[in-house]
């Protein structure tokens, strides 16, 4: 089991398989993807060594992320590799919904069990303004198909003062007859979005009060649950999750580790550096990697210091996958 010096246990790996993205989300890649230098993303073999090692150390859940993971041509092979690794019982992916309808059945066939789709607004014009793409309706149809194929679907929406501050009633209406969890995520400051962050950051705590006032109840979390606070309402099929990285107890419930598409371990989303695992991955050295992970994990810090404006080495979340 992977455990740090604060007693936190890590059974969840967020694995980025590319940092390339085709969207231009205002808070993430407002100028689109910029290739800075030659990148060699982890190969299928390297991913195999990584996943095998994490699974042997107690990881039971993997989330594939990016950049936009769907842009990687060998995505179905990566999914199948993860799904077929003993010990992995939850295989999730986060996507912007690109080619969802066309490709989702191949992901299900490969073993995907959970899908998070990012939709910051249900208003097509606002969606376009935020992402630079006019594909909201297509993505919503893709979500219906994903659900019909048995995937558990969550929708991620980043809270933005001038884009969706008043959108809660529209989101709630939409959730009434849909068994979907909508996760409202507080915008996080990163190295490159400080001006946008200062203009747009919105706290989720008032939304919590609003929900409780409208008959929503908080779902009790089990010990291994992550930082999201979840709410249900008897009249709604959907649920709401709030992700409040600036709130107390966010870091104490941390249960995840991250590996970038370049094979670097990030002990925190806002760690000051990624720790290179490539030497172990390229030689298939499961034993060496096991020892290295156990030792290195002891350097994980208690908190991210995000509320003090510290963003570590994270220029934007496309680098790591959020
Ligand atoms: N491209 C995929 C997508 O957008 O779903 C996966 C990668 S994206 C980095 C993962 C999640 O991080 C998305 O839900 C996105 O909205 C969220 N995200 C990106 N930048 C963020 C920021 N600065 N603060 C909060 N969430 C952010
Ligand atoms: Fe791309 Fe996701 Fe970043 Fe949007 S949030 S630019 S879809 S990586």
Task: Please describe the biggest sheet, giving its number of strands, its sense, and whether it closes into a barrel.
Answer: 12 strands, mixed
User: What is the helix tally?
Assistant: 11
Would you state the CATH class? Answer: Alpha Beta
In which order are the strands of the major sheet placed? Answer: 7-8-9-6-5-4-3-2-1-10-11-12
Radius of gyration: 19 Å
For the record, give the distance between the C-alpha atoms at the N and C termini, rounded to a whole number.
Answer: 23 Å
Strand coverage percent: 15-25%
- The percentage helix is 25-40%
Bound small molecules, which ones? S-adenosylmethionine, iron/sulfur cluster
Report the count of strand segments.
12
- Structural category is alpha/beta
CATH architecture call: Alpha-Beta Barrel
Global shape: globular
What are the defining features of this structure?
single chain, 322 residues, alpha/beta, TIM Barrel, 12-stranded mixed sheet, binds S-adenosylmethionine, binds iron/sulfur cluster
């Amino acid at each position: 089991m992977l455990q740090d010096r604060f007693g936190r246990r890590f059974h969840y790996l967020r694995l980025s398989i590319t940092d390339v993205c085709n969207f231009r989300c205002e808070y993430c890649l407002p100028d689109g993807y910029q290739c800075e230098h030659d990148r060699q993303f982890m190969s299928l073999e390297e991913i195999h060594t990584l996943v095998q090692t994490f699974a042997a150390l107690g990881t039971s859940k993997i989330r594939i992320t990016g950049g936009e993971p769907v842009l990687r041509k060998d995505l179905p092979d990566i999914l199948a590799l993860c799904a077929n690794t003993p010990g992995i019982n939850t295989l999730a992916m986060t996507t912007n919904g690109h080619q969802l309808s066309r490709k989702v059945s191949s992901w299900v066939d490969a073993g995907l069990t959970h899908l998070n789709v990012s939709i910051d607004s249900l208003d097509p014009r606002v969606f376009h303004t935020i992402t630079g793409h006019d594909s909201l309706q297509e993505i919503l149809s893709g979500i219906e198909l994903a659900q019909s194929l048995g995937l558990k679907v969550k929708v991620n929406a980043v809270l933005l003062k001038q884009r969706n501050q008043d959108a809660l009633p529209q989101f709630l209406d939409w959730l009434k007859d849909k068994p979907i969890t909508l996760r409202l995520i507080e915008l996080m400051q990163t190295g490159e979005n400080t001006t946008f962050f200062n203009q747009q950051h919105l706290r989720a705590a008032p939304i919590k009060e609003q929900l409780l006032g409208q008959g929503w109840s908080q779902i009790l979390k089990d010990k291994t649950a992550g930082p999201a606070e979840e709410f249900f309402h008897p009249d709604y099929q959907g649920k709401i999750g709030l992700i409040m990285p600036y709130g107390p107890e966010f870091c104490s419930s941390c249960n995840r580790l991250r590996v970038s598409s370049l094979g670097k371990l990030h002990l925190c989303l806002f760690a000051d550096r990624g720790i290179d695992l490539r030497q172990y991955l390229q030689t298939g050295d499961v034993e060496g990697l096991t020892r290295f992970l156990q030792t290195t994990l002891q350097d994980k810090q208690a908190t991210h210091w995000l509320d003090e404006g510290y963003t570590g080495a994270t220029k934007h979340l496309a680098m790591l996958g959020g």
